Amino acid sequence: MNNRAFRVVGQPLEDRKARVAELAGMGFTWADIGAEEYWIDQLVVMNGEVYEDVKQASRMLWSVFDKGARFVFGRRDLYEMLSIPEVLWDGLDQLEPGPPGLISRYARFDFSVSEDGRVKLLELNADTPTGYVESSIVTPWMSRQYGYCSPNAVMGELVRQAWSVEQPEAAACIDYGKHLEDSGTIDALVKHSGRQMRCVDCLDLWVDEGILKDSDNRAISGMFALYPKEWMGVDDGGEALAYAIETGRLNLFNPIHAIILQSKGLQAVIWGLHEMGVQLFTREEHEAIERYMLPTYNQPVFEGSYVSKSMFGREGGSVRMYASSGDMDIQDEEGFDTSTLFENVYQERADLPRVQLAQGEYRLLTGMFVINGEPCGLLGRAGGLITGNASHFVAIGVDQIE
């Protein structure tokens, strides 16, 4: 591949088994998932100028999304439009959000970066993004092997800074110790935080008169959790957990207000405010919205091709792509379709760029982590037009950073 934005270097080495074992020793234990090679042993190198544009897009849009979320605070009609479960509304209204730029301290933008370097935002995961181990540990390792830069090296320090403020005493995910990716993500975050913490399984937690407790009956007052907050509206015990948060007995990280950033409906709110030219955003922010965001609405009003997706869909679940004729072109078949639980959002279509790897041609999704308010870490996912559970991880290094 030879274009302005990316090029691929290297070929998969013959000693994959030994390399996979080395990665496992570094905490990346899901490089191979059964017989499936999740990790691709090649490096995508991003042009330095394009990287700077992705970073600038992330920095500007982080401010835009922060202002958009604060516009939503206290407006229950917008909570409903964004499909935020009603069980969370009291907490959203009663609790103070974080300071500017820090509603969420652990997030990831997902971009389509075209072969000629045009950057377009697809979505923001501001609540429970995974890919942290791939970005913070494996990507610098791969980049060093080929002699390229990796801005991802700062991710661990930013986690340490964030958690020194949040000070969680526990970290949790569902099936901790069994689910390799989520458990490995939790373990890496805890290690990088430098804090002494206990890691727990969400399924072992329970709420006793508003106090969250673990399986040993120990109270937890501060917790980082890879648990999507929207599930509090449907899970058994979700209402009790929401009550623990809204009464201040539990400080959950990311904080509860991250769900507003997480809802894809916020992009429709932001786009609508942009079209009205509101002074909520600065001139530079309006320019960033126009340049980096895609027209997004809560109704399918497009004359050309577009995409529909659930406001809380994850891993490609619920995504449907429509051609300019209005006929459905492709839909995700692997992920859970959350559009049965939450409303849809509709977005102008921006197809992912092609990348030629040793295993064949893929579409490349470019992620950019934002930790403690700082854009800091690239994540490459290689799959189809829809990036779902069957996609692969490929590291992205950067060329010619000044």
- What fraction of the residues are assigned to beta strands by DSSP? 25-35%
Rg over alpha carbons? 20 Å
Main beta-sheet strand count, sense and barrel state: 8 strands, mixed
Query: What class, by secondary structure content?
Result: alpha+beta
* Unreliably modeled segments: none
Shape, please?
globular
Question: Helical region count?
Answer: 11
Helix content: 25-40%
Number of domains: 1
Per DSSP E runs of 2 or more residues, the count of β-strands stands at: 22
Quick synopsis:
This protein is an alpha+beta fold. It is built from eleven helices and 22 strands. Helix 2 crosses helix 10 (265-275) and helix 2 (48-72) crosses helix 11 (283-292).
What do these coordinates show?
By secondary structure, this protein is an alpha+beta fold. The protein has one domain. The chain contains 11 helices and 22 strands. Strands 1, 4, 5, 6, 19, 20, 21 and 22 form an 8-stranded mixed beta sheet that branches. Strands 14-18-15-16-17 form a 5-stranded antiparallel beta sheet. The radius of gyration is 20 Å and the shape is globular.
